[in-house]
Amino acid sequence: MAVASTAPVHSLAHYRTEFPIFERRIYLNSCSLGALSLRSRRRVQEYLTLWEERGAPAWYDVWWDALGTLRREYARVIAAKPEEIALHASVSTASAVLAGAIDYTGRPRVVTTELDFPTVAYQWLAKRDLGMEVEVVPSPDGVTVPVEALAAAIDERTALVATSHVFFTTGAIQDIKAVADAAHAKGALCFVDAYQSVGQIPLDVHDTGVDFLCAGGLKWLLGGPGIVFLYVREGLLQQLHPMVTGWFAHARQFEFDPTSIVWHDDARRFEQGTPALAAVYAQLGGLELIHEIGVPAIREVTRELTEDLVGRAREAGLAPRVAPEAHERSAIVMIPSKDPAAGVARLADADIVADARPGHVRLSPFFYNLSDDNAKAIEVLRD
After folding, report:
1. Stated pTM of the model
2. Which stretches does DSSP call E strand in 201-282?
3. Which tens digits make up the pLDDT trace of 277-294?
4. What is the set of domains in the chain, with CATH numbers?
């Protein structure tokens, strides 16, 4: 399929050539996996060359520094301190470490919502036999969860509020500052899964007041699978001691002492084992692009593309399931469908990449997309 645009293009359209997939098809699936950039490919090749030419000695003067660089670059994208960043393989491993570090004495409750990605709740649902109580707050409209409803579910027995910055089910943006305030008002902590938001929506994590936050490379940070970060608010670092851990959490790990654990003073105490370096390098390439452009500029363009997509879907009678106001919408657009898999297959036949979720075809434009991409996708779904 020809993918050249005949319509006016936005200010970031020239970055499209950085992503070779557009030479073959239209990619509208960044919320599942960000498109591979030439920069990430080059960075992974750099890692492979080091592995081939030097082997393990590259750890000591190159790869170790790469881990530090990645912590700094992750911190930069959420306006945190590098000392507040721990590296992980997935949100599941990060939340497992976090779940094992919290004191539930007198506070056995965790509050979450029905619109959150299930990983958010699983760590605590798995501990029900140990006395954990998990309250899942329903959504009154199937799109958002009012902060007031979350606040009403939080009490003096609540240890943690665990929820999302952007709901994967609808793309609605949640006011996580208000959520954190509601949690803290009852003495609870606040953990935010920001995998659906970081990279497409500006975020100052200190301004939000949240205690913990996760995001990673898979989606909007253009780093692929296998690398995420856990932010831990600086004031909590000395108070928390993980029960799930690994040798990278040890402050003197190269002493190889099996008789004691000496925790790092910073967020590295929440790390586990050796990070996957190919994923680290791929993420460094993706972050190079994110920082070069700037998340505010990305947000401006993706908001335009999202509103264009929502408008086209409504004109075609497809009734997109999105938040009611534009400022509440992220670049995730859910198109109701009786057979989402068939809709995704029709798009694939037209060389358009999208994804299916229960009852919906999901389209997720990013700064490398064009309004023509939206038009062609809606045309296929309408027909």
Report:
1. 0.95
2. 212-216, 228-232
3. 999 999 999 999 999 999
4. 13-37+294-382 (3.90.1150.10), 47-290 (3.40.640.10)
